Amino acid sequence: MRNQLLSLCVLGAVTAAPVCAEEDKYLWLEDVEGAKPMEWVKQQNAASAQEIKAYEDFDELVSNSLAILNDKERIPYASRIGDYLYNFWKDENHVRGIYRRTTMEEYKKASPKWETVLDIDKLGKDEGVNWVYKGFNCRYPENDRCFVSLSRGGADATEVREFDLNSLSFVDSKQQAFFLKEAKSSLSWIDKNNVFVGTDFGENSMTDSGYPKVVKLWQRGTNLSEAKTVFSGDKASVAVSGYVLFDGDNSLELVSEALTFYTAEHYVYREGKLTLLPLPKDAELKGFFNGQLYIELKSDLKTGNESFRQGSIVYAPVDTLIDQKPQFQLLVEPSATASISQVKFTKSAIFVTWLDNVKGKLVRYTQAKDGQWKSAQAPFDANGTISVFDVERDSDDFFVNYTSFLEPSSLYSFNAVTMKAEKVKGMKQQFNAEKFETKQYFATSKDGTKVPYFVVMAKELKRDGNNPTLLYGYGGFEVSLRPSYSATIGKNWLEQGGVYVLANIRGGGEYGPAWHQAALKQNRHKAYEDFEAIAQDLIAKKITSSEHLGIQGGSNGGLLMGAAFTRKPELYGAVVCQVPLLDMKRYNKLLAGASWMGEYGDPDIAEQWDYIKTFSPYHNLKANTAYPKVFFTTSTRDDRVHPAHARKMVAKMEGMGIDVLYYENIEGGHAGAADNNQAAELKSMVYAYLMQQLR
User: Is residue 670 flagged as an active site residue?
Assistant: First the structure.
C-alpha cells in the first residue's frame, strides 16, 4: 500500500510542481483500515482515553452530556410530508434512532402520540449492520414513496432504498423497487416511475472528488445498467446531479454540474434535450416561484443597462433564460452590515432571513400587481438566531426556530399570510443561564478589518486573565457561525467556570459573499489573522490569558486550529482539532479533497503551492518549538476528510518529541459520532481535556 501511495506522489510531480519534495514517512497511515494503522490507532486511543478520563469530574461530564442528548423534553423538530409531521429521534432506548410521525393536532400537545415509521436500531439488529440514518427524500407533492439513505457507521456513502409511506415498509423487488448499493449517490424523483440517478456506475462515472460525474434517467422496472445517460460532466468537476424544482402545478427539471465548489452550470431538461441557462457560473439557485427563477449573486452582475450588486437576490422568467434572453430584476440587495442567510418560498410569498451584524431578522416579500415588492418584518426578536424550515410551495404554513446563546430554542408555527406566530414547542433551560451574559465585540485584524465575535461569560466575571476560555472558529466555505443555545456548553463548560467565545472571522458568510471571498486561496491568511486578533483582544481585555485560552474547530475549522497553533503556538494553552485537514500537499488526493480546491487552491501547481504551504500545518511543524498540548479527534469512517490528516500530524509530532493526544472513533463518519453514547463520551473528553490544560 505504501509503495502505491508513493507512486501516486511521483505521478503528481510529472504534470506540475513536485508533490513530494521529500518522502513522507507517514504515508502508511493513509491506509484507512489496514492492520498496522489500526493497531497504531488503538494504541493512541488507549493512551489518550486513559489520560483524559483521569479528570476527576469526567463521569459527571458524561452523565450531563447523556442527560442532555437523551432528554425527552427537547424539541422534536419535524417536517411535513403530506398529512403528517415526521421526526427523527434518538434517546437511550433508540440509540441509532427512530423515524416517526404524528399529526399537527397531536404535535401541538405536550406529549404527542407518535407512530413509528422506521426503527434504525431494529433494522441494524435484524440485518447485522451498524446502520446510521442519513435521511428520507420523498416524492413531492404526492408524498407516497420515499428514498431512505442508510450509512454503514456514519460514512457519507449510503445505501438507498425505496420506502412506501402508506404501508410503512420497504418496497421490495417484486414491486420493482428502486435500490442503490453503497456509494456517494444522487437520486431524485421525477415521477413515481422515473428518477434522476447519479452513482458509481463503474469506470469513469465518478469525479476526482468522488461524487457522481454522470446523470441518468432511470425507469422503474429496468436494471440500473439500462438507465439512459442524460449528461456526463468533466472528471475534474466536483459533481453532477439531476433534480426537480416545483412552482405550484409546474415543475422544472434541471441538471447541474458543479465545476468547482463555488461555480456551476445549470441546464433545463425538456423533452429529452438540455438547454444551458445563461447564468453567472458563481450564482446560486435559490428557487422557482411564479414562473421566475431566483438566484443569489456571488459577484457583481452587469447585463445590458442593469447592474446588480454582489450578494443580491435577482430573478428572471424561466422562458427568457431558456431563450437565452434573460430579463433580470432585483428582489433584495445587502447592506454594509446585513447579508442574506436564507431564502424560502411559500405558496404566496418569499421569506428572507437576514443577518445584520450576525443577528437575525425575518422579512416577507410579496409582489403587487404593478410588480413592486412590499416587505414586512416578522415579529421575532432581532438579537438571536432565526431559522426557517419546513417550507413547501403548496402551503403558507411553516416553522420558525428562535434561539440565542442563553435562550433555549423556541419553535413557532408561522403563517405567511397573517404573519402570526404561534409557539408550539420550547426547550427548557438546561443550565443556569441567569448567571451569564453575552457581549459582542469587534477585534481589529492585521489589515484593519473589524471582526465580530461573541463572548458568553459570568456576569460577575473577574477580568484578571485567569478564566479558562474556549474560542471556537470555522472561517470557511461561506458558513456563518450564529448565536445558538448549547446545553452541553452551558452545563459542561460555562457552569464549570469557563468562558465561551464564538469567532465570526473572514472565510465565513456572516457579511455575505465578500466576507467569504476575502479569505480564499492566497488570502487564506486573512482568516487566521482575524482569529489571532480575537485571541489577542480577549487577552487585552483580561478576559483570559494565553495560558488559559483554549481553541476548538472541526473540518475546515480543524485546519484553522492547525494553522493557529503552528503560526503562533505561544498564543494558546490548549487546542482541540477535530476531523481536520492538515496535510495540504495531499488534501486534493484524499477522498473528497479535490472538491475544495476552489477554497484552498491546487497544491499540484507550483505557484499555488507557494501560498498553500504557508497554511499547511503538517509542513509547518518546527523542531525545538514549545507547542500547546493538542487533542486531535477523527473517525475511521470519515469518508469526507480523510482520517490520515490527523493520524499523520500526530505521528509526525510524536516523531519530533512533541506531546500530543489523539482519539479516533471507529464509527461516526465526519460527524464524529454515530449515536448519543459515542457523542456524550467524545464531548466529555473534549471538556475534560480543556479543563486539565487551562485551569
Answer: yes
In our burial notation (b when 16+ CB lie closer than 10 A, e otherwise), range 450-475 reads ebbbbbbbeeeeeeebbbbbbbbbbb
Euclidean distance between CA atoms 651 and 621, whole angstroms = 12
Q: Taking 60 as the threshold, does the pLDDT of residue 2 lie above it?
A: no
Measured in degrees and rounded to the nearest 5, phi and psi for residue 292 equal -110, 145
Query: Is the pTM for the entire model greater than 0.85?
Result: yes
pLDDT tens per residue across span 514-554: 999 999 999 999 999 999 999 999 999 999 999 999 999 99
- pLDDT, tens digit (0-9, with 9 covering 90-100), for 610-662: 999 999 999 999 999 999 999 999 999 999 999 999 999 999 999 999 999 99
Give CA–CA dist 591/368, Å, rounded: 49
C-alpha to C-alpha distances, 506 to 437, 545, 575, nearest whole angstrom: 25, 24, 20
Phi, psi of 216 (to 5 degrees): -125, 160
Cα 15 to Cα 6: distance, rounded to the nearest angstrom: 16
First to last CA, the chain: 44
CA angle 93, 97, 98 (to 5 degrees): 100
Q: Which of 470, 465, 431, 435 is nearest to 454 (CA)?
A: 470
Report the alpha-carbon distance of residue 466 to residue 444 in Å, rounded. 23
Characterize the bridge pairing of strands 549-554 and 469-472: parallel
Instruction: Look up residue 693 and give its three cell numbers.
Output: 490544560
Q: In terms of DSSP bridges, do strands 228-232 and 239-247 run parallel, antiparallel, or are they unpaired?
A: unpaired
- Can you tell me the distance from the alpha carbon of 582 to that of 619, in angstroms, rounded to the nearest whole number? 9
Query: In angstroms, rounded to a whole number, what is the distance separating the alpha carbons of residues 237 and 589?
Result: 14
Considering 205, 642, 670, 684, which one is annotated as catalytic? 670
Report whether 516 contacts 524 (CB < 8 A): no
- For the segment 207-241, what is each residue's pLDDT rounded down to a tens digit? 999 999 999 999 999 999 999 999 999 999 999 99
- Residue for grid cell 485537514: 581
Q: Which amino acid is at 216?
A: K
pLDDT band at 382 (very low <50, low <70, confident <90, very high): confident
In contact, 293 and 327? CB cutoff 8 Å: no
- What the block records as the C-alpha cell of 313 is 437576490
Task: Match 397531536 to its residue by C-alpha cell.
Answer: 106
Place of cell 492547525: 562
- pLDDT of 665 higher than 70: yes
Q: Which one from 555, 595, 635, 684 is the annotated catalytic residue?
A: 555
Three-state SS for 10? helix
Answer yes or no: 548 catalytic.
no
Query: Do the beta carbons of residue 177 and residue 162 sit within 8 Å?
Result: yes
Phi then psi for 290, rounded to 5 degrees?
A: 50, 45
